[in-house]
Write a structure and sequence with these properties.
141 residues, alpha+beta, five-stranded mixed beta barrel, 3 helices, 41% helix
């Protein structure tokens, strides 16, 4: 079997893997496999071709991956807990200054703390989450 056929198969398999994952997993090794493919026409040593494949793939990955990851937009998926930040709610149990009270946000009851006293029935806005407690401030209404 000619070595160029093996390198062509490797390029095709790695390209397929990259298309499936879309996470920049094997793109550097596709490039290094292409170099090894062209090298196979000039050199008869599989060991040299394989060394070029591995070393070039690793070098390309180490040099370019951090740069590409900075340039690529990241989707920040909010978890169930994070999505309540910024939501309005109603105080169901009075919140004394730095004492735990209770609020209803997004149809669920939560323990909540605040820097100020907030009476039952008042509207609040969730500012952050501290452990299992919501940090809230008095709303506009």
């Amino acid at each position: 079997m000619d070595m160029w056929i093996l390198w062509l198969i490797i390029v095709i398999l790695l390209t397929f893997l990259e298309v499936i994952t879309i996470n920049l997993v094997s793109i550097w090794f596709i490039a290094s496999a292409l170099v090894s493919l062209f090298l196979s026409f000039m050199i008869d040593s599989f060991y040299i071709e394989f060394a070029v494949f591995v070393l070039l793939g690793l070098v390309l990955m180490l040099i370019t991956r951090p740069i590409l990851l900075k340039k690529m937009p990241r989707k920040e998926v909010k978890t169930n807990l994070d999505r309540v930040i910024g939501m309005e709610g109603i105080v169901t149990e009075e919140i004394a200054k730095h004492k735990i009270g209770e609020v209803k946000v997004d149809g669920k009851h939560w323990s909540a703390v605040s820097d100020t006293k907030i009476e039952v029935g008042a509207t609040i806005i969730v500012e952050s989450i501290d452990g299992v407690k919501l940090c809230v401030r008095k709303g506009e209404k």
